[in-house]
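User: Can you help me understand a structure? I only have the sequence.
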Amino acid sequence: MKKLILFMMIFFGISALIGCGGIFDTVETTSRTFQTRTDPLSTTVNTINEELIISDLYEMIYESLYETVLQDVLNDISNDRFQEIYDSIIVSLLNEIEAGNINVSAASAMQMIFNVEAKQANSVVGIRNYNQNGVITAVGSGVIYKNVGNKYYVLTNNHVIEEGVSFSVVFENGEEIGAVLRGVDELVDVAVLYFISEEEHEVSSFGDSDSLRKGEMVLAVGHPSGFNYFNTMTLGIVSGTKRYFDIDNDGVKDMFVGYIQHDAAINSGNSGGALFNLKGELIGVNVIKLVAADIEGMGFAIPSNLVQAIVTDIEEFGYSIQKPVLGIRFIDINGNAKFFRDNGITLPEGVTRGFYIIEVNANASFDGYVLPGDIVTRIGDVLIESTTQFVEEFSKYRVGDVIDVELIREGDIVLIENIILKAAVK
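Assistant: Let's start by predicting it. Here is the structure, written out as tokens:
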């Protein structure tokens, strides 16, 4: 109302000077001469510059209304709406940076880190694992990645919760809430728990781990060496992608998980913690670190795209149906002459690639199709040159996919068709 009265006062003031049509109609901004009688004994001729008057009056309006209007706008925008607008601007800015349209300064990169620390890092919680006697047997990190009302889902590593009987989620203020184990994927080392809370907790969003590039900055958040160092944040870069390991120590690099290698400092207790990009997106879950006197800065995280698929399965089924299990133990043809010689195995002449089947597990994908002693040269559309190459290329297959297998059996080439890939037996 105050603004309206002020505006009307100014409006009538202008109207009195240059006529009512002077504001809303097209204004001819030339100087005109008016005769005004201010004294019966004299006549004064004044020149009025309409353009100057209008300019001055607009300035008056601006100065009078600016502060009031600004305050009203700020009052109308709630804190949540302001945060929404702010987040939108930040996302747009980051997209422009990623597209190469904006150069990132050290100061702006630092501000991105501060933003992650203030918001997304709070989704990283502590995990306690209790045995049947109520004794803590393990602690680690976890990430709240989803909520449905007051039900919050937390992902962590399977090795953080394995052999536990009961579990809890721990917050930085010391609050501890009991959690329920929904399910695990032992081979990929992922577990999902959930807890109920009427309080509002920060929830992370998954990013696209396939878009990661070497040299991209990442932030590791977790609790190294226990909760005395709660939510420690470290900075590093992506050192490599699609790294494969023999996690279960069976002599073969494990399929399916192409780990993200990075040099952000992680230690015992970081297991199950987050690896964020500078947008604050969860692009990995820290799981392992190579430790040796001559090794430094080699940490590894499970890529977020795989984690997201696995936790979705666990939420629905209680276990993961993503990873097909061939159910075989095998060894490369190349580079293992001593193994074949020591075991009295004579390979067919001219065979230089593929792998030799040592054992076939019951009820697995290859059970009933391949035999010990077979030399597999192709699975699906993957020609087998080496175990390492096969492990990486076969990772694209999922449970339920139908494949063909080409192998050498007793010197003959055999094609086995329509093998349905199965999940691990539960």
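Now, to help you interpret it: The chain has four domains: 2-76, 79-118, 119-320, 328-420. Residues 50-76 form the longest helix (27 residues). Let me know which part you'd like to focus on.
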